[in-house]
Fold this protein.
Amino acid sequence: MKRILVAAIFLLLFFNKTPLYSDIKLRFKEIEVEFKPIQKSHYEYASKIVNYLHKKVIKEGNLNRYLMKITIKKYNVIVRKEKTEKDLIDIFKKENKIYIHKVFLLVEINDESGNEIDSIPIKTQTEVKVNENLTFSQRKMINKNLYNELEVKLTNELKKKLLTRLGDFVIPN
């Protein structure tokens, strides 16, 4: 009984740390990932997302007639104060800040003559509420953790959308 319990705990910890399917394998003639902002975006994190998607999305099979283009349209890093009610003693009240990372990308599928087959918008975000009085290194660590969490959410959302909308183009792992 103890062995089963230990094995179950190990499996839970192992599968929570590592993604079950690491790469997204697709069947396209060409897969292009680019950053074309529609408005002001956080360039550093957007370029990290482009590099991440270049590694994550793999062209394994080959359908010579179809092309995929993933465009990162916007990456926002928002820091705002938490809305609270006014108290009589506002001097002693601690303020909290909310850190939000949002990404918006567009997946377009075209045939070789340039006709659009499908267009899939994907939006995802992560957020955390923290104390207002943080050092620079703590704020930087929060943003790094939010970015890492956003990568995982984006990968899951991308897999889900591609499987439901373009199941024939996805190679199961």
